[in-house]
Amino acid sequence: MRWCPAVVLCLAGACAGSVRADEAGPARVHLAPPGWESSYHELHYSPVVRIGDRVIVSGIPAVEGADDEAKARWAFAELERHLRSAGAGLEDVIELQSFHVAADHAEFRRRIAPVLKVHREFFQRHYPAWTAVATGALYSKDASMELRAEAVVGSGRRARAEVAPPVE
């Protein structure tokens, strides 16, 4: 079979100029739950970014509440609200990072105790990976701690733990 040069050029041009959706990469959506729009417009960061099924939540400073426990509870509730804006939930969180204002190890342990209590309330099964870090200061002056998280939409529906039972 002989190919006409015009047909070959046409086919080559069509292939070179087209991009399949899967080759273009997943869509990236920037989100800001109501009340957090200034983070995007004024501070130039996205409170939430969704890339495909992956959701990244920027640091949520624990600023509302009378004490560290109330502030932590507010931050975890805001985390849930941020995740919901991207179609995810707490059950989909795969990694959590928390930053705690503390000058030394003893203060860090004291400051994280109420956060551990609240963490147990919000994550009752299939806990995310978690890194807690002490720091000298946070951007939000009155914040006792800050939360950051990553989630995979829908991953909580089929979560399972392959962990030995606790030793008694």
TrEMBL record:
Annotated signal sequence range: 1-21
Gene3D superfamilies according to UniProt: RutC-like
InterPro entries in UniProt: RutC-like_sf (IPR035959), YjgF/YER057c/UK114 (IPR006175)
One Pfam family cited in the UniProt record for this chain: Ribonuc_L-PSP
One MF term in the entry's GO annotations: hydrolase activity
UniProt entry tagged with the keyword Cell inner membrane: no
Alphabetized UniProt keyword annotations: Hydrolase, Signal
Name of this chain's protein: Rid family hydrolase
Species this protein is from: Lysobacter firmicutimachus
Native organism taxonomy: Bacteria, Pseudomonadati, Pseudomonadota, Gammaproteobacteria, Lysobacterales
